[in-house]
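Weekly puzzle thread! Below is a chain. First person to post its structure in token form gets bragging rights.
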Amino acid sequence: MGKLVELKHPLVSHHLATLRDQSTPPHQFREQVRRLSLLLAYEATAGLPLKPVSVRTPLTETECEELGCRIGLVPILRAGLGMSDAVQDLIPQAEVWHLGFYRDESTCQPIEYYQKFSAHPPETAFILDPMLATGGSACEGIDRVKKWGVDKISLLCIIAAPEGIEKVSAAHTDVDIFVCAIDDHLNENAYIVPGLGDAGDRIFNTL
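Winning reply:
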């Protein structure tokens, strides 16, 4: 069974306050997305497998451990791009692949417009999307990553609505979900309340 992890940490609460503030300028918004993405990734990577490796220090040979699997990052375009650089800084050897969806405003359904995967999938994938609202894009993204052949999938989101969590958890019981905050509900336009607005517009200054 997949698990749901909501980060409970003073730093998360602190950075979320700035992220939610409508007066936060785009450059500072991006910085907060980056910080929160690092905290999410730290939590989400706790169960990664390790393998032994011998290294020579200035004094002697010693046994250490390093990551023991190929890792793929799959940001959901476009807002997921705001998270990918931070996570890749934490895992420099991670591969970055892309999925693009936009929301049909009349139906609130995701429409795919881009996919870039390799012929050889990694063992582990982290799907990155700042907002988990209806869960439509997340479910479609997970479907495609599973069809790609990835064994272990986690979804990393900064803000989530209960409706989106319920949809993803029901459709993909084996996927772990990591979020910084679970908000109250979706409004009549399927936006997260209290939320933070449109993450993509605020990241890329296209309000």
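Puzzle host: Confirmed. Bonus trivia for everyone else. The radius of gyration is 17 Å.
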